[in-house]
Design a protein that fits this description.
368 residues, alpha+beta, three-stranded antiparallel β-sheet, 16 strands
Length: 368
């Protein structure tokens, strides 16, 4: 796609009262947290651009990883303080003003798309409360999560990969057939009898062939800051909601820079693609069972982009350990760690034993 220059970023400071503005979830505006004034985000001329994987690796594969550790200095427009960070967006440590990196080190990929916040703080709190209420034997520390202000809005980087694949394969097709066998069984009267039954067998034959498939937006988590297993459970993300990246969408929120580079991300994506292709091969072989002995996959037209995904994050401490609850700010899905309260479990067991004891006592009394 052709690259279009982005519009001039809107001010993170309200032009009406000078207070801090932030992106308003589910809208296309920056909204002042003090007077409520709004600034419209203009994205009419923008399109989401993708990078050619082969071209990018030819230029940056050797330098990209080192560049990820390089920090940039940002100057707060509110108080003028300097902040050094590796994040795409953060808050000023002195006044809380929004800081957004407008430049990145050489070799670092800028976000090309963003799935904006759709679930606001109040809705996220309601989702957390609902999730907490469904956790049986939850400690009180978990139940407090849904009633606090401790929700942090954060964008997490993800890669998306596209590719056209052509695959030559070799394998075997298994077709079931049945033979009649006999066996001796008990007749139920102390004797035996002979019966016939059908025994299933498999006839294997060699197969080879060719399959092709196009992949679009294979998603790979591009950050190690949060547990990978939890982040992968946050989907499916509504990528149809993605918009061309503009600083306004991350204003008022933190946004992490990726620490999984495109080369490592592409390897994960291709591993996922191979799993899908394996299923294609099995279907192409046909029969009742399949054995895939070899797949020679060729990838072409490989493209990728960096997309920021929105999360609300709540943390709490129980028994000296920190736990996290995540809310997908695109769909409202909640995923989190939860400990169990030993006291509540013990009380529940005692209550159950008391009930059982009472029932037994009533039954015994009725028989006497």
């Amino acid at each position: 796609m052709s690259e279009t220059l982005p519009p001039v970023p809107l001010s993170a400071v309200c032009p009406s009262c000078g207070a801090q503005t932030a992106y308003a979830p589910g809208t296309t505006v920056l909204r002042c947290g003090s007077c409520g004034a709004e600034q419209q985000i203009n994205a009419e001329q923008l399109t989401i651009r993708e990078h050619s994987y082969d071209e990018w690796t030819a230029k940056h594969a050797q330098t990209g990883i080192a560049a990820l550790a390089a920090a940039v200095q940002l100057k707060c427009k509110n108080c003028g303080a300097q902040t050094e960070t590796t994040d795409v967006s953060t808050a000023c440590q002195f006044c809380g003003g929004a800081l957004v990196a407008t430049e990145v080190p050489e070799g670092v990929v800028r976000p090309e798309a963003v799935v904006p916040f759709k679930v606001d703080r109040n809705a996220a709190r309601d989702h957390v409360k609902e999730w907490v209420s469904s956790r049986r034997f939850a400690p009180n520390s978990l139940k407090k999560v849904g009633s606090t202000e401790g929700l942090t809005g954060t964008y997490i980087p993800h890669w998306t990969f596209d590719a056209h694949t052509e695959t030559d394969y070799e394998g075997q097709r298994g077709d079931y057939y049945y033979v009649t066998r006999t066996r001796t069984v008990s007749d139920g009267k102390g004797g035996t009898r002979t019966e016939t039954y059908q025994e299933r067998r498999t006839r294997w034959s060699d197969r080879s062939g060719h399959v092709r498939r196009d992949f679009d937006d294979v998603l790979v988590v591009a950050s190690h800051h949060l547990e990978r297993e939890q982040l992968e459970k946050m989907g499916p993300w509504q990528l149809a909601d993605a918009r061309p990246y503009q600083d306004e969408y991350v204003t008022g929120y933190s946004a992490l820079r990726y620490d999984v580079d495109p080369v490592a991300g592409a390897k994960e994506a291709r591993d996922e693609m191979r799993g899908v292709i394996h299923g294609d091969v099995e279907r192409d072989i046909g029969g009742d069972e399949q054995r895939v002995n070899d797949m020679d996959v060729t990838y072409s037209q490989a493209m990728f982009k960096l997309v920021l995904m929105p999360l609300w994050i709540a943390s709490y401490v129980h028994a000296g350990k920190t736990f996290q609850v995540l809310v997908n700010a695109n769909t409202g899905k909640v995923v989190g760690d939860r400990p169990y309260s030993a006291i509540k479990i013990a009380l529940a067991v005692i209550a159950a034993l008391v009930v059982i004891g009472a029932i037994v006592a009533i039954v015994v009394a009725g028989k006497s």
